[in-house]
Each structure stands twice: as structure tokens, then as C-alpha cells.
Design a protein that fits this description.
Strand 13 and strand 14 form a beta hairpin. Helix content is about 20%, strand content about 30%.
Length: about 325
């Protein structure tokens, strides 16, 4: 196995002739200064036409710029044969459909049984060596599309896309009740609940948070909602749906108590049939950092939410 990942290549156009290599790296290849500093320390980190050069040199039309990153591994993560669903994979990206109930990355008290443990074992079995770099997170009980970068260049690029708002993340939720409007926006700042630090709440002094929603299907006991995040606050969808009176079915942390006792009983009956909040990351679209291609990934509705949806379509539970 090579000490380096496959090189990322950039060809100099006639319009770019005479530019500094440093400018090409920063402005054309969009490589951060931090990563450039790392690449300069490796023997084949930055190459021009197959030769290691200073980044202060000027480039010519037709020149071939290559960057090579040293292979890294996740030695701090114990490989475990944990199955997971792969939606897409190439030399640079791994996209999975995360199951509900699994934690993404080892944390204090959860060093094994995570998605990271399973992915590292999968790569090891293939004789491959990558560091586990999730570009974003999903709550333990939220299922759906999750993107893992295989090198720091890809991680940086997708993170910047997320900051710029060009990564399109869409979710499907099954909620109690129905929104007053067919579609709308929930613009409610979010911060920690001072009485319960692990719980978030909408508060005027919170951090800006915007969720777009659309009512996709409605029944007597609940609704199916399509959601798009315009920001990425912790528990944002769960907090915002509760805020407008449509808490997620099965959500034990965020609840909106109905005015009528009969409705409250129906809420509890539905919640008892759902072992987690009914939230699924159903779609994600981004630009591939290396090929420039726009990619969209879909994760089908998981069995537990599909069963709840069928139950709601029968207009209630027994």
C-alpha cells in the first residue's frame, strides 16, 4: 500500500500562466493554509510536473499540479464487525445510511458499538487505511444519510460547502398533529435550557436557527413533514417542530402537551409504538470536492417509520 492517497490533480489553463503556485493552491484548488503547511512537510506533498518545488514558483499553461496527502488511520478506534448500509463510496468519500440507535463516533462512555468502529473494521478488511472523518453528525436516534470524508482535503471542502449553505440536507419527520400552514418557515433562535443543559429551547437570546417545512401528507392523528435545514443547531428540527405544536412522534425529550386530555392519550399511544423520535435524514446533495460533480444521495424511509406511517394512514392506533 502506498504511503500516500491518490493524488489530486489540477491542470493550469492558459489564463492562469504566470500565477504563483501558492495562488493556484489557495484560490483555484481552495486548499487551506493549514493543509498547505502540512503538505509542504511531506516529500511528495506538492508537486509540479512530477517535481517537488517551492510554492513561490510561477506556473505555465499545461503544467500539472499534484497534491499528495499521507495516509492516516484511526488507530484510536477499535475495529468491530458492525454492519452498515453503504449508499456511495469512492477514493475520497463514503456515504452511509446510518441506522437509528447507533452513535456516529466514540465518545466518553461509548468507545465501542459506534458507526466509526464498524467503518474502520470495514476498511481494514479491505486492506485500506483511512481516518474516520464524519463531515456532519446525526443524533443517535436519527437515521439517514451521513457523509464521511476520507482525507483532510475532502473534509475541508465539504465543511466549507456547509458553511456556505450549498449542501442541501433534507429530512422526513412524522409528527403529532399538523402545521397550520401547508408549508412555511420556523425562524426561532435556539439555545440551551438553563434548567436542563442537555435540552434546547427557542429563546430570543439564542443562536439564529431557520427550518423550512412542507406538509407532505396528513392524517387524523399526525402528519408527514418534509424539512430543510438552513442552519445546523443541536436538536433543531425537534425543537422547532415542538415550538409550532407538532412534536415528533416518539420524541421523549421534546413534547408539546395537547390542550385536550383525549388528544394527550392519543399522543401517548402513538409514542408507545415508536422507540425513538420519528426523524430521518432522507436526502443530501453536495458538490464532489475532487470531480466537481453535483451528487445527491437518498436513504429510503426505515422500517420503523414506514410502519408508523402505515398506522397513521389507518387513522389512529389501537
Amino acid at each position: 500500500m502506498s504511503l500516500y492517497y491518490e493524488p489530486i490533480v489540477y491542470m493550469i489553463s492558459p489564463e492562469e500562466e504566470g500565477m504563483l503556485l501558492k495562488t493556484i493552491l489557495q484560490k483555484r484548488m481552495n486548499i487551506s493554509r493549514k493543509l498547505i503547511s502540512r503538505l509542504k512537510l511531506t516529500e511528495q506533498g506538492i508537486m509540479l510536473n512530477g517535481i517537488r518545488v517551492y510554492i513561490s514558483v510561477k506556473v505555465k499553461a499545461g503544467d500539472r499540479v499534484e497534491i499528495r496527502m499521507e495516509r492516516e488511520s484511526s488507530d484510536d478506534i477499535l475495529p468491530e464487525p458492525i454492519p452498515f448500509d453503504i449508499l456511495y463510496e469512492d477514493e475520497h468519500l463514503l456515504v452511509v445510511n446510518k441506522a437509528a440507535g447507533i452513535i456516529v463516533h466514540p465518545t466518553h462512555g461509548h468507545y465501542t458499538g459506534t458507526l466509526a468502529n464498524g467503518v474502520v473494521h470495514y476498511w481494514q478488511a479491505k486492506g485500506e487505511k483511512f481516518r474516520f472523518r464524519p463531515v456532519h453528525r446525526l443524533d443517535q436516534e436519527t437515521s439517514g444519510v451521513l457523509v464521511v470524508a476520507k482525507n483532510p482535503y475532502v473534509h475541508q471542502h465539504i465543511s466549507e460547502q456547509m458553511i456556505a449553505g450549498t449542501v442541501d440536507k433534507r429530512y422526513t419527520a412524522l409528527v403529532h398533529g399538523r402545521p397550520e400552514q401547508q408549508e412555511g418557515r420556523v425562524d426561532g433562535p435556539i439555545d440551551r435550557n438553563p434548567d436542563h443543559p442537555h435540552v434546547r429551547m427557542v429563546t430570543p437570546d439564542g443562536y439564529p436557527a431557520l427550518t423550512l417545512y412542507k406538509l407532505e401528507e396528513a392524517w387524523s392523528e399526525g402528519s408527514r413533514i418534509g424539512l430543510k435545514l438552513e442552519s445546523g443547531r443541536t436538536h433543531q428540527i425537534r425543537v422547532h417542530m415542538t415550538y409550532i405544536g407538532c412534536p415528533l412522534i416518539g420524541d421523549k425529550m421534546y413534547r408539546a402537551i395537547p390542550d385536550e386530555a383525549a388528544h394527550q392519550e392519543r399522543y401517548e399511544q402513538l409514542d408507545a409504538r415508536m422507540s425513538r423520535q420519528a426523524l430521518h435524514a432522507s436526502e443530501l446533495s453536495l458538490m464532489h470536492p475532487v470531480t466537481g460533480e453535483r451528487l445527491t444521495f437518498y436513504a429510503p424511509l426505515p422500517d420503523d417509520m414506514a410502519q408508523m406511517q402505515r398506522l397513521l394512514r389507518t387513522q389512529g392506533c389501537t
